[in-house]
Every structure is written in structure tokens, then in C-alpha cells.
Write a structure and sequence with these properties.
mainly alpha
């Protein structure tokens, strides 16, 4: 169906039902799904119809984003799991021995990456593309639903369905990585190391020219004429190493052990380690 073109009546229902079933068959590896009819309106959340419809919703969103060329490159997609994305830090957890609680927390973070990326992508769609996508999603699910609401709802449905298979998490571990973007032939024939020599020489020259000013400690007192100085408040107390270690240890009390300081602890760390900026006016 052409972007933005809507076929009224029963024809639309049959076309989307057929598309959903066909797509579900192609994605059958995502949990052993057996195709069934699309459940429209108030379908039982997570039923076969919702699963099939949600796969079509994600496919429609991806198609619109791809056509408009507004895909977000911040995190990598994961094949077969359109509601998850991966970044290098989170990819490191695929090699760890995670208990069920940590596995669930890992999935939560991968899902959050996808929501963040899709929020950006959908906001960057042209107005006409947003309207066409909204109409297409309404036709798929049988009721008005914004694309972002569809992402949230369908991510939960598909995750619940896909990861009901206990082997799914192990399959995810094998595919949850960020691909590199090196060109194959230059890498194969060693051209990257050769070019690295010129890059390194240029970088050293850049450091000599620009980093000398950064070697000087910022002066106390009023800023030099022509400079604006940005620093933590003079009343800020610098944390001793033991206090920093205690804050970071407490901030890791989550299933993945990721340090996430908040509130006063975060402010104290920022005031201790924040750089001093001197900007020429």
C-alpha cells in the first residue's frame, strides 16, 4: 500500500490482516508464533492477534522512518526484536552471568533505548509522514492510537510473547552487539594502520596548538578581562576519595550494578569533579 493512501471498508481490514499474518510467519523465529486472525478493537492484550498486529505496527513505523531518512544512529537495532536496541555499554552485559532479575533489568534498559530512539525518530518525521503513519496504525489496530503509544503498548506485548520462550534470552545474548562500521577491504589490507600515522601526527600538532591553555590551572579571584569563568559555587565542598567511593557503592544497588547517583549525591559528585570553563567573550 502506498504511503498515506487508505483503502476504506472491509478491504482495508483484509489487507492488513493478510500483511500481519505474512509478517508473523516471516518472524516466526521470534518465539514460535502460530499465525491467527487479527483481533480488532478491545482484543485481549498479548493474544495472537495483538502479537501479529504489533509486529505490523513496528514494521509500519520502521518503514516510515526509513522512507523519511530520519533513523536515529545513537543505538543499534537488534534483528527480530524491533522493540529493543543496544549500545556498547549495555552490550557488555551479554557476556555476564545474569540472574533472572538482572536479565529483566537488562531487557528494561534495551527497551528504554528503543523508546528513546523512536521518540526522536517520530518527532523528526515530516508532518505528512506523521499523519500517514497515524492513519496506518489506526487501520491496523482498529482504533486511534499515536505511533508513540503504539510503540509503548506493542513493546510490552511483544516482549511478553517473545521471552515466554526461556531460550530467547540466550539467543539475544548472541545477537545483542553493536556492529562496527569499518570498510572491509581497507581493514583487510591494513590501510587503517597506515592512515593512523597521519591522523596521529595531525592530532599531536593539534594538541600543541590548542591544549597549552588547558595546562594552566584557573586563577582564583575575579576573571581576567575578556574571559567568562564557569565553575562550581565557591561554597561547594570537595568530596574526599572515601566519600566518593561510598556514594558510588550505594549508587550500584540495582540488579545490574550500574552506578546511578541521584539527588544530593549526584550534585556533590558534579561539584567535586566539574571542570572550570574559561570562555573568551
Amino acid at each position: 500500500m502506498a504511503e498515506g493512501f487508505r483503502i476504506p471498508g472491509p478491504v482495508m481490514r483484509w489487507r492488513h490482516a493478510g500483511a500481519a499474518i505474512g509478517l508473523a510467519v516471516l518472524l516466526g523465529a521470534c518465539g514460535g508464533f502460530t499465525p491467527g486472525p487479527i483481533m480488532r478493537g478491545q482484543a485481549a492484550a498479548g493474544g495472537a492477534g495483538d502479537v501479529a498486529a504489533c509486529r505490523v505496527v513496528f514494521a509500519a513505523i520502521d518503514r516510515s522512518v526509513g522512507t523519511a531518512g530520519v533513523g536515529d544512529a545513537e543505538a543499534a537495532r537488534i534483528a527480530g526484536l524491533p522493540y529493543l536496541r543496544i549500545a556498547r555499554f549495555l552490550a557488555s552485559f551479554r557476556h555476564r552471568d545474569l540472574d533472572p532479575g538482572a536479565e529483566a533489568a537488562w531487557l528494561d534498559r534495551l527497551a528504554a533505548l528503543d523508546r528513546q530512539a523512536r521518540t526522536v525518530e517520530l518527532a523528526n518525521l515530516p508532518a505528512a509522514g506523521q499523519r500517514a503513519l497515524g492513519a496506518e496504525i489506526e487501520a491496523i489496530v482498529g482504533r486511534p492510537e499515536s505511533p508513540l503509544d503504539g510503540v509503548r503498548r506493542c513493546a510490552a506485548i511483544l516482549r511478553r510473547h517473545d521471552f515466554a520462550d526461556t531460550g530467547r534470552i540466550e539467543a539475544l545474548r548472541r545477537t545483542a552487539y553493536v556492529p562496527d562500521h569499518y570498510a572491509f577491504w581497507p581493514q583487510l589490507f591494513g590501510l587503517y594502520p597506515v592512515s593512523a600515522v597521519a591522523v596521529a601526527a595531525g592530532f599531536e600538532s593539534w594538541k600543541v596548538e590548542f591544549l597549552a591553555d588547558f595546562a594552566d590551572a584557573p586563577e582564583a579571584g575575579p576573571p581576567t578581562a575578556g574571559l567568562s569563568v564557569y565553575r562550581p559555587p565557591a561554597t561547594a565542598a570537595l568530596l574526599p576519595p572515601r566519600a566518593v567511593a561510598a556514594i558510588l557503592a550505594g549508587a550500584r544497588r540495582n540488579p545490574l550494578g550500574i552506578a546511578e547517583p541521584t539527588g544530593r549525591d549526584l550534585r556533590a559528585l558534579v561539584e567535586t569533579f566539574a571542570p572550570v570553563w574559561q570562555v573568551e567573550r
